[in-house]
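Long-time lurker. I teach an intro course on protein structure, and each term I like to show students one example going from raw sequence to a predicted 3D structure in token notation. This year I'd like something fresh instead of my usual example. Would anyone be willing to generate the tokens for the chain below so I can use it in lecture? Attribution to the forum is fine with me.
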Amino acid sequence: MRILTDFNDDWLFEGRDRVRLPHNAVELPFSYFDERAYQRPFTYSKAFLADPAWENREVTLRFDGAMANTVVRLNGEIVATHADGYTPFVARLTGRLVPGTNHLSVTIDGTENPAIPPFGNVIDYLTYAGLYREVWLQVTTPTHIQNVKIETPDIVRPRAEIRVMVSKPEGRLTAVIRDKAGVEVARAEAPAALDTALTLETPGVALWSPENPALYTLDVTLTTDQGRDDLQTRFGFRKVVFSPEGFFLNGQRIKLRGLNRHQSFPYIGYALGRAAQVKDAEIIKHELRCNMVRTSHYPQSTYFLEACDELGLMVFEEIPGWQHIGDKAWQKASVENVRAMITRDWNHPSIVIWGVRINESGDNHDFYKETNAVARSLDRTRPTGGVRYITDSEFLEDVYTMNDFILGNEELGGNRPRTPLRPQQEVTGLDRPVPYMITEFGGHMYPTKSTDQEQRQAEHVIRHLDVLNAMYGDPQIAGAIGWCAFDYNTHKDFGSGDRICHHGVMDMFREPKFAAYAYASQSDPSEGPILQPVTFWARGERNIGGILPLLILTNCDEVELRYGNHPPKRVKPDHDRFPHLPHPPVIVDNRVFTKDELGLWGMKWEAGTVTGFINGKQVAQTHFAADPVATRLEVAPDATTIGAHDSLRVMVRALDQTGHKLPFFPEPVSITVTGPARRVGPGFVPLRAGSTGFWLQAHGAGEITITVSNDRLGTVVTQIISE
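-- Reply from a regular --
Happy to contribute to a lecture. Here you go:
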């Protein structure tokens, strides 16, 4: 039997600190730091006992991710090297273990080594350093299963075509497919070869889709004279097609509406485990209500991808890189990144396209001909894409994927009329339409902080809506993936000088800006009503005073605005301004109020109520106080329980008497944590735009007490159970 053991406890970092993996070599401040702090070598070591039961067994360590240039030594002997920060690698211990205590040493180098993608020039994100993903000890029979690939090429006559790679051509393979309930739906057997092909007919399966992410489990067993080895993996039945007419999943045309994601978090960089990765997928799917995410600009955690599988969130996954292409050796390493990414992730039904071009790089015929060839040889069920921002780029992939930042061209001194998106053939320069998708827009063209003035935030919203409207209105565009979901730390060469790119529709703590609701409001009302007025409801916040025009992001049929005791106004979504959006915003302006009515608002500021209706029935309502007062401190953990080694986000907000966050309440809070967990980040922090956040990292079972205090709003005590 295969044994997979958690190997993450009791590592000695730099010879002084006992740590558990995942681990970040240097915890950075929130902003204004020197990113060179982690750009040096670090060492992890661990002593462990060799189990006598491992005799005559295959023993390996699997590293899920280490940043970036890694050397593994066992008892002083090099057993593995890996020059890629994003894909897994294995250190083989078989035949090298000594009886009793063994000593493992892992050196990682956070230096931005120009020989390793994505390095060689500047990049607009941080790569941190450390053993930032988990390590596993694996014990198998000497002849064992190395990998399994599952393809479902035909959904009309459903079948799973399986390839099983084994270490030696010995024994017999059995493959069994089970549904969600564990019921067997198909079985096949064959003698084991180095690469064994099996076909399992599976009539009547449920297809994987965003609305119904049906998953199946494949159990593969290799039986030899040495014993039995088992490997289990999940997959889904679905068919992906990008065509000049758009994107089709299982024959159904779907507009892809998504956002880009960096896998980084404040203070701790990449080193948050399963719970935080799953939560990010849940935020993108359920809070932002996207159906697509791009893993910019590297393969991300398998926990994140597994959550996308379960949630029905489609994924564009790409290789590491940012604009720069290195020398031939660098390019060879990048080709291997393609291979490593696909062989790690080819069974995830959520992944619908592979990114095999360095993000925003120039053309390189031979290099990209090879990356595409490798991808197509490994996976015949998904297309390739190559993200560029230059026009008339050589088209070697299956889908022409484009970062279209035309919105704002005039601000940069361009002479092209400002439009949300360019027509496809203006971008491609081709004489025909081809499969086409927008992979970035917005972002650095209009960076917006959560602390920015209301009018800038409203313009931020409009720019996202304009592109989504153009995407929905153009049948040749498969979808659009905005830049980006979350703010992120970056190098000094980018961002606002504070080492932050404020490009997200959420901040680094995943707290929504108004633009987040530009995406959420395009969801079907069956997912829940969205009603978000883009206002802080203050007479003097805007340059000329007042709150009009008032943009209300909603998927309701109609919205009612009540101001003070004046007669309410009913307003419908603005289909004239946004004719293609599934759910245009409601815009309250002088088309709604007469000049005399506007005069009634006068100098005295009054309370307001916004109500949303669907089919004439009230489904949502929000109230705004005329005199907001700092009333209470909210401490909101994502859950009330946490795994003994998991992480958990906790948000802290200053609220007024109606429950609205106070955007200009800057007073600090103190945060203390007692019990079997540590707080990630400092314990005395300001509120930014009325809120702040932190993550807990549990280190055992028991009761965790969070105490948050503010001099004016008092103290809130919250208990979390670690189990």
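Some talking points for your students: The first strand starts at residue 3 and ends at 6. The mean pLDDT is 94.
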